[in-house]
């Protein structure tokens, strides 16, 4: 009986990479996050949700209050998640088109983002994707997403030491530790918002 009370509930995290590139560093960050939950963040399960099959947002595709099956399946994954982890690249000082498209589809009535705790991780050039994070936070205000404030995770992918291997896997141990702190913070924030 004592062991059962010490088990933490499982936090289900829907993870979205805003980059569709096969060897995407952002998808690599999500793979690293999954590995970290298995190694050192118990009680958290991360599922990467592929946003590449989503059609471009088009309300003509909404028929009798329903969405195309691929959109319905995506929305259900977001609805079932306890929290969201965005791996957001920076395109022209903003979020990528695929990520914005996913945000828009899941915001259609009823908004399945509402009241979800969330975190953002980014990598890229000199700012490491920081400007896209600020824009995503602005979008999140309207969507009723609740982002953790700290720690922030931005990573200059091109500054030594090497951050990613040729397959896009995160290899930098300091970055992995920083990513782990984001996951721990997201987990604690999720419990707090759930009243646990």
UniProtKB/TrEMBL annotation:
SUPFAM superfamilies: Flavoproteins. Its EC number is 1.6.5.2. It is an enzyme of class 1 (oxidoreductase). Residues 12-157 form the NADPH-dependent FMN reductase-like domain. InterPro entries: Flavoprotein-like_sf (IPR029039), FMN_Rdtase-like_dom (IPR005025), NAD(P)H-dep_reductase (IPR050712). It catalyses: a quinone + NADPH + H(+) = a quinol + NADP(+); a quinone + NADH + H(+) = a quinol + NAD(+). Pfam families: FMN_red. PANTHER family: CHROMATE REDUCTASE (PTHR30543), NAD(P)H-DEPENDENT FMN REDUCTASE LOT6 (PTHR30543:SF21). This is NAD(P)H dehydrogenase (quinone).
């Amino acid at each position: 009986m004592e062991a059962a009370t010490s088990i933490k509930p499982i936090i289900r995290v829907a993870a979205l990479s805003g980059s569709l590139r096969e060897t995407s560093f952002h998808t690599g960050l999500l793979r690293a996050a999954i590995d970290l939950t298995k190694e050192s963040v118990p009680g958290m399960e991360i599922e990467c949700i592929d946003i590449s099959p989503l059609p471009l947002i088009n309300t003509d595709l909404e028929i009798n209050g329903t969405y195309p099956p691929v959109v319905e399946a995506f929305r259900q994954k977001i609805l079932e998640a306890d929290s969201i982890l965005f791996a957001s690249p920076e395109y022209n000082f903003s979020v990528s088109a695929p990520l914005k498209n996913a945000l828009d589809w899941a915001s259609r009535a009823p908004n399945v983002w509402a009241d979800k705790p969330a975190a953002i991780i980014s990598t890229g050039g000199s700012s490491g994707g920081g400007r896209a994070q600020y824009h995503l936070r602005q979008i999140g205000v309207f969507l009723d997403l609740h982002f953790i404030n700290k720690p922030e995770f931005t990573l200059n992918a091109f500054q030594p030491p090497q951050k990613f291997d040729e397959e896009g896997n995160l290899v930098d141990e300091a970055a992995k530790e920083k990513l782990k702190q984001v996951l721990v913070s997201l987990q604690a924030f999720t419990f707090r918002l759930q009243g646990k």
